């Protein structure tokens, strides 16, 4: 068994970094698009300083539509869009497109939930003294919701690790691809066992790191 693990080590190393690439790109897109979208969902809610029922409704419907599609179906559905963006439908970069689309609404809802934990009295006081919407978002919402945002990012990262393994079943590369090629098609239990252990260790590390950072920034 040890000899077999040493034999597949180069491929396992490549698969690990492909998984990291997919998750990294998707997390970055989730932060760049999902974070503002989640804040928008919160600040346009009833009774808040940028209340807007039409915007809240449209953004909410888009988020719910994407979240309602199982990832494996979304992966296949986005193949034409993926090919348009990356000129290919296989490999970690191509898989990152579907992962990013799945991550955006997922993280947006977590951001909205984290923002709801903020005491509305603090926001009302800021509005009363004439603070601009951007100042409220930058100086009150972000600092107050920071632990929740980081915990949400941790949850998103762990979900993306699972999704990336699914992406491997359709040629996305990464640890999932390695497990399918060797563990399933070739009935190699050693490879399957090794990939499972790697995924468990990776998820545990991400969870620990996320919890540590969330506690470090929590000033409450």
TrEMBL record:
The chain crosses the membrane at residues 20-43, 55-78, 90-108, 148-170, 190-210. One of its GO terms (cellular component) is plasma membrane. InterPro entries: AA_ABC_Transporter_Permease, MetI-like, MetI-like_sf. Coiled coil: none annotated. The keyword Transmembrane helix applies. It comes from the Bacteria. The keyword Lyase does not apply. Keywords: Cell membrane, Membrane, Transmembrane, Transmembrane helix, Transport. It is a multi-pass membrane protein. It is found in: Cell membrane. Its main location: membrane. GO terms for biological process: D-methionine transmembrane transport. Residues 16-210 form the ABC transmembrane type-1 domain. Belongs to the binding-protein-dependent transport system permease family. CysTW subfamily. This is D-methionine transport system permease protein. It comes from Sediminibacillus albus.
């Amino acid at each position: 068994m040890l000899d077999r693990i040493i034999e597949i080590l180069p491929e396992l190393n490549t698969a690990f970094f492909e998984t990291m690439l997919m998750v990294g790109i998707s997390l970055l897109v989730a932060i760049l698009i999902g974070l503002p979208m989640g804040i928008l969902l919160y600040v346009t809610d009833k009774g808040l300083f940028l209340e807007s029922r039409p915007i809240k409704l449209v953004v909410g419907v888009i988020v719910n539509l994407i979240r309602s599609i199982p990832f494996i179906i979304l992966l296949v559905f986005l193949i034409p869009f993926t090919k348009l963006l990356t000129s290919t439908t296989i490999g970690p970069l191509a898989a990152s497109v579907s992962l990013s689309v799945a991550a955006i609404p997922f993280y947006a809802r977590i951001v909205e939930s984290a923002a709801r934990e903020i005491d509305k009295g603090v926001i009302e006081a800021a509005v009363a003294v004439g603070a601009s919407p951007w100042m409220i978002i930058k100086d009150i919402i972000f600092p107050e919701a920071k632990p929740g945002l980081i915990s949400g990012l941790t949850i998103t990262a762990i979900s993306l690790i699972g999704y990336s393994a699914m992406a491997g079943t359709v040629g996305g590369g990464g640890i999932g691809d390695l497990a399918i090629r060797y563990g399933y098609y070739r009935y190699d239990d050693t490879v399957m066992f090794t990939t499972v252990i790697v995924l468990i260790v990776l998820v545990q590390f991400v969870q620990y790191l996320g919890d540590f950072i969330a506690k470090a920034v929590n000033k409450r």
